[in-house]
Specification:
This protein is of the alpha/beta class. The protein folds into 2 domains: 14-253, Aspartate Aminotransferase, domain 2; 259-377, Aspartate Aminotransferase, domain 1 (Alpha-Beta Complex), CATH 3.90.1150. The chain is built from 12 helices and 14 strands. The protein has helices at residues 14-20, 36-56, 69-83, 99-112, 129-135, 158-168, 229-232, 240-253, 261-276, 304-313, 333-337, 358-377, and strands spanning 2-3, 63-66, 90-94, 115-119, 140-144, 171-175, 195-199, 210-214, 281-283, 294-299, 316-317, 324-325, 328-329, 347-351. The strands form 4 sheets. The chain has a 7-stranded mixed sheet, with helices on both faces. The longest helix has 21 residues, at 36-56. The two termini are 26 Å apart. 50% of the residues are buried. The mean pLDDT is 96. The protein binds pyridoxal-5'-phosphate (PLP). Pyridoxal-5'-phosphate binds at residues 68-70, 73, 98, 100, 146, 150, 175, 177-178, 199, 210.
């Protein structure tokens, strides 16, 4: 088995697993209970929040633990748009965001009367600051731009956009789910963002755990109602195992990115030259300003299902970047935004990680021409 799908998820780090184990055993109290069993859980939760805050360079009150990246994005976007609706109803995002962002904006537009500008991208998947400046209106209240794209790896000019927002009093959110663990992190203020989404399972933490950094004094409207958890911002008994997994994975795998650029670069370079030599293949991941672990390409005369099946038959796990529904593939909205409608359902994404080896890349490069030829012939 060759796993080249680290942007989808990563295996749990054994050290992270170790840190989570007590919460499936002896520590099972509810942090909201007033008795000593609950108080012990509460003390540990406070501890995890303090460690997370120190790690981020933030205040403990600026950390909201969530069930992952999707929920963090939903809280950031729905919660802020609703909080500020009396100030204005114009929102800006990009055409290449993850669906956990795009579908929030679609909903606000369709159901709640907001107006949404979706910035176009260039052939590398990057927005232009000029387009962004032109999109700003007096009633713009919120901007959301991803730090790095999950399908093709493009890194966006997030801190520049954040700076422009701050100068204009506009709230800025970045979905940094694919960025953490892959790019050098110093502290959360480097994004110039008011809201930052993070998800543990992209850097060898557990699934179902993430956080939203909320710069004080912002207090988005909650999207989950119930108890007063997370300082009235996210109701629901806290997932202590997940939270400890998240903070352990942050401390271990993020400051020193677990996706090591120097290790991954030659592997990705070899995959890229192999792809370039195959008839009908075109690279879509940018040469510069891109995640070091990701190489994506399109294949003329084929489709994602045939390509994924062909790779899987040889034991290779990759991704087509687009959602599969009822046995057919939706075209990738990212490839459509690049202006490549004709190949939007024939994307292949290889995303490598810390256990990817030279031997695996050699093996894939040997087989890839044959797999692609077969997938093309079956059309
Ligand atoms: C850019 C981006 N945002 C958000 C998400 C959703 O995160 P989660 O799986 O934690 O819900 C993903 C997951 O693939 C992602 O790649």
């Amino acid at each position: 088995m060759i796993y080249f799908d680290y942007n989808a998820t990563t295996p749990l780090d054994p050290m992270v697993r170790e840190a989570m184990l007590p919460f499936w055993g002896e520590i099972w109290g509810n942090p909201s209970s007033v008795h000593h069993v609950g108080r012990k859980a509460r003390a540990l939760l406070d501890d995890a929040r303090d460690r997370t805050a120190i790690f981020l360079g933030a205040k403990p009150s600026e950390v909201v633990f969530t069930s992952g990246g999707t929920e963090a994005n939903n809280l950031a976007i729905l919660g802020t748009a609703r909080l500020l609706k009396n100030k204005g109803k114009h929102l800006i995002t990009s055409a290449v965001e993850h669906h956990a962002v795009l579908h929030c904006f679609d909903y606000l537009e369709k159901m709640e009367g907001y107006s949404v500008s979706r910035l176009p991208v260039n052939s590398e998947g990057r927005i232009s600051l000029d387009d962004f400046r032109k999109a700003i209106r007096p009633d713009t209240i919120l901007v959301s731009l991803m730090a790095a794209n999950n399908e093709i790896g493009t890194i966006q000019p997030v801190s520049e956009v954040g700076q422009l927002c701050r100068e204009r009093g506009i709230i800025f959110h970045t979905d940094a789910v694919q960025w953490f663990g892959k790019e050098p992190f110093i502290k959360v203020s480097q994004f110039n963002a008011d809201l930052v989404s993070v998800c543990a399972h992209k850097f060898h933490g557990p699934k179902g755990a993430g956080l939203l950094y909320i710069r004080s004094p912002l207090h988005p409207d909650p999207i989950l109602f119930g108890g007063g958890h997370e300082n009235e911002r996210r109701a629901g008994t806290e997932n202590l195992a997940g939270i400890f997994g998240l903070v352990s994975a942050l401390e271990k795998n993020v400051k020193n990115p677990v996706f090591n650029r120097f290790y991954l670069q030659p592997l990705i370079a070899q995959l890229k030259s192999c792809v370039l030599a195959i008839k009908g293949c075109e690279l879509v991941s940018p040469a510069d300003g891109s995640l070091a672990n990701t190489v994506s390409f399109t294949v003329t005369g084929s489709d994602g299902i045939a390509l994924m099946a062909g790779l899987d038959m040889e034991g290779i796990c990759a991704s087509s970047g687009s959602a599969c529904s009822a046995g057919s593939l939706e075209p990738s909205h990212v490839i459509l935004a690049l202006g490549k409608g004709d190949v939007a359902n024939s994307l292949v994404r290889f995303s490598l990680g810390r256990d990817s080896s030279n031997e695996e890349v050699d093996f894939v490069c040997d087989l890839l021409p044959k797999i692609i030829f077969r997938a093309q012939k079956n059309q």
